[in-house]
Amino acid sequence: MLGNKSYIALVGGGKQPKYPQNKVPPEDPDWSVNDTDIIYEVQIWNDKTERFTTSTEFKTPVQRVRLSQSHMIVALLNSICIYKMKVPPVKSAEYETVNNPFGLCELGTSIVAFPGRAAGQVKIYDLNTGNVSIIPAHESPLRAIGISRNGDLIATASEKGTIIRLWSFPSCTKLAELRRGVDPAAVFSLAFSPDGSTLAVTSDKSSLHIYDLIIATNASSQADPSQHKYGILSKIPGLPRAFSDIYPTATAKFEMGDEPTTWGPHGRSATLSAGIPGVPGGRPTKGLIGWLDDGTILVLGAGYDARWERFLVGRDDSGKKCLVANGWRRYII
After folding, report:
1. Of 141, 227, 215, 206, whose CA–CA distance to 178 is shortest?
2. What are the Cα distances from residue 257, in Å, to 262, 303, 328?
3. Within a domain: 132
4. pLDDT at 267 (0 to 100)
5. 125 in a structural domain
6. How far apart (Å, rounded) are the C-alpha atoms in residues 158 and 145?
7. Can you tell me the distance from the alpha carbon of 161 to that of 12, in angstroms, rounded to the nearest whole number?
8. Does residue 10 belong to any structural domain of this protein?
9. Which uninterrupted H or E stretch holds 214?
10. Angle value at C-alpha 33, between 30 and 36, nearest 5 degrees
């Protein structure tokens, strides 16, 4: 959806969609699909007039669409297509990527961030100048990307899922490494608060973490052991890195839903996809983060047991930041 406007990008699905996207053959063995005849489409629907305003065709399945008032970004399995929002949309650039089954692509006000041609690489396209920057963010394939509202911060996570890295833009320098945990996990979502001071992270551990980026990027605050999870142990040389890394400011549990075992959470591979055709990553989206304001977080999940949960960023009795559950609802009954 385009912000709070009436324009919505739609991609077809199902057994016989009007606008094709990964047609699924039914049980009938005599029914078949000729892949060469399928045209995959992104349709722009105006919910106010209840009419399609324009469409764009593709030869391969669409993994994800991002919209702004000026641009439309379409993520395919091995490429990113950048369009200017006109009728019809005008393609301004296209870039090859590594396998991108989750459709990783984040659209800011003036930049687009997406996987590069090498595993773990982030490519950043400046919508105003057309300049391209490359960040060798991780050694493993990317699993999640986030962009701050004003576009000066970029967060990345690999399919290993233990470390989230924070980058500045346009300098593309690394500002901090944030430890999610010591065991591997699939990071579902990375999202900056509207003011850019906090980063929220979800993973398949059913955990929602927040990081205070002012503390994480401030060398003087990091020097204070009282601000660290392991206290004075974080300053003892020779201990494993996990003792000195930056840990979440607060953590809470979210519900991924009671799904059939055949659905399950996202797979962990950022380059291999299997499961539900037409769904990015092949599994229902879980742990998608949305900030309502600087103190309110929504965590959404799709699938058989689709639900949202609301969390408030507050302070506990000792004055430390905490996350407080503040309501939930199933939105598909």
Report:
1. 215
2. 13, 8, 12
3. no
4. 64
5. no
6. 9
7. 31
8. yes
9. helix 213-216
10. 145
Q: Are residues 270 and 148 in the same domain?
A: yes
Q: For residue 47, what are the domain limits?
A: 1-30+38-93
Same domain, 226 and 308: yes
Spatial contact of 99 and 114, defined as CB atoms under 8 Å apart: no
Establish if 130 belongs to a structural domain: no
- Asked if residues 143 and 135 have their Cβ atoms less than 8 Å apart, the reply is no
Cβ(78)–Cβ(97) below 8 Å: yes
Separation of alpha carbons 202 and 22, rounded Å: 28
pTM of the full predicted structure?
0.86
193/297 same-domain check: yes
d(CA 111, CA 115) in angstroms, rounded, equals: 14
For the record, the structure tokens of 53 come out as 């305003």
Q: Please say whether the beta carbons of 9 and 72 come within 8 A.
A: yes
CA distance 43 to 95: 22
Structure tokens of 240? 């494993």
Per run of 10 residues, the mean pLDDT along the chain (length 333 residues) is 90 65 50 60 92 90 93 96 94 96 94 97 97 97 96 96 96 94 93 97 96 81 52 50 76 89 64 68 88 97 92 92 95 77
Q: Are 56 and 73 in contact (CB under 8 A)?
A: no
**Token pair of 42, please?**
């992104």
Query: Do 246 and 310 sit in the same domain of this protein?
Result: yes
Alpha-carbon distances, residue 238 vs 199, 219, 234, 241, 243 (angstroms): 29, 20, 10, 8, 10
Alpha carbons 50 and 46: distance in angstroms, whole number: 6
11: closest CA among 2, 23, 3, 20?
A: 20
Q: Is 164 found in the same domain as 21?
A: no
Burial 130-154 (b: 16+ CB within 10 A, else e): eeebebebbebbbbbbbbbeebbbb
Contact status, residue 181 vs residue 205, Cβ threshold 8 Å? yes
